[in-house]
Amino acid sequence: MIHNRTNVKQNEFQTGKEESIQFMTYSRKRSMNPNVPTGFVPKGRTWDTGFLIQSSTTGYFYVWIPVGSLQENGTIDGVRFCHQFGRRNFQNDDFTKHGYHEYSQNFMQQYKSIEKYGGFYLSKYIVSLDLNTGNPTLRRGKKNIIPMINLSFHQAMKIAQNMEKSETVHTHIPYGVEYDSVLEWLLESGIKTPREILEDSSSWGNYKDAEESPQKLKKTGSRENLWSAMGIADLAGNTGEWTQERHGELGIQGVIRGGDCYQRGIDFPVSVRRLHNPRHKNQAIGFRVALWMR
Predict the structure, then answer these.
(1) Quick one: CA dihedral 91, 94, 98, 100, positive or negative?
(2) Which ranges of the chain does DSSP label H, i.e. alpha helix?
(3) On the chain, which terminus has fewer CB atoms closer than 10 Å, C or N?
């Protein structure tokens, strides 16, 4: 049995204040001029396609996610968005009927990074398999790059932690609060509407009933011209994605976000939380990685 409470006392996450800590405003100038970590180069800087960086070592692409406000208890702007995204406190259920919290005690490292830099980076693509080498990759491939599936949460965690590893950056499976901040950014930037996120994501995800839907798993990024947002490919489709969020006091259930190609967008919009045992594996579950700067 996996016990997901951290060893950090809960009061270390409480600020004693109701207001959020403001890290960044959603202006075009500030949102599109983030810090570029050592070992990465900027590869795109437009409002519609997002700010992209590329690793000089791996060649992988990451998209900047500005964070408007964050609280030390693990919530992002809970007043406005908690009901929309089912947002929750770090170790209690202030905003939901059931408890949601993060699996990893490294959350505070990410919090401090966001506080310092005003956001974090998210991989442009879900983690995939290079059929030529048999290795995990974050590249886009027309022929031999396919999403990695049939992985348990812990298998995905191990791979994610090794996608980029240096003195300046660290990669991991996104926290639930990070995933929520991505959806918040899509709304704040005006790229997506509340309906497209909360009610029906078929227009920008390869769902069962989506227009031009393949109704099956596609090669990584093969439909990014149809189903990308702010430079993030297949966020609402292809596979669901493991997060570090857990449900329940003992953390028995893991949380999967995003849609997949076997579900209807009206039934499983991108904001939905799906619960599975962390050991669960199937052909519709993959994962993406987040990158934080030290």
Answers:
(1) negative
(2) 28-31, 78-85, 107-117, 153-160, 176-188, 194-198
(3) N
Could you state, in order of their start, the residue ranges of all structural domains in the chain?
Answer: 10-293
Q: 147: which 2 tokens? A: 């999403």
Q: What is the pLDDT of residues 239-290, one digit of tens each?
A: 999 999 888 766 688 999 988 888 888 888 888 888 899 999 999 999 999 9
Length of the chain: 294
Task: Name the residue among 194, 210, 197 with its Cα closest to residue 264.
Answer: 210
Q: Which residues contact 148 (CB under 8 A, 6 or more apart)?
A: 126, 127, 128, 129, 136, 156, 159, 286, 287
Check residue 159 and give its pLDDT: 97
Q: Write down the mean pLDDT value for the chain.
A: 77
Structure tokens at 213: 């839907």
CB 149 within 8 A of CB 279: no
Tally of CB atoms within 10 A around 168 = 11
pTM for this entry: 0.83
Tokens (6 digits) for 250: 């003992």
Find all residues with CB under 8 Å of 160, minimum gap 6, and list them. 127, 171, 172, 173, 287, 289
Determine the average pLDDT of the residues in 207-215: 71
10-293 CATH fold: paralog of FGE (formylglycine-generating enzyme) (3.90.1580)
Round to whole Å and give the CA distance between 82 and 126: 26
Q: Cα(31)–Cα(12) distance, rounded to whole angstroms?
A: 30
Q: Are 175 and 255 in contact (CB under 8 A)?
A: no
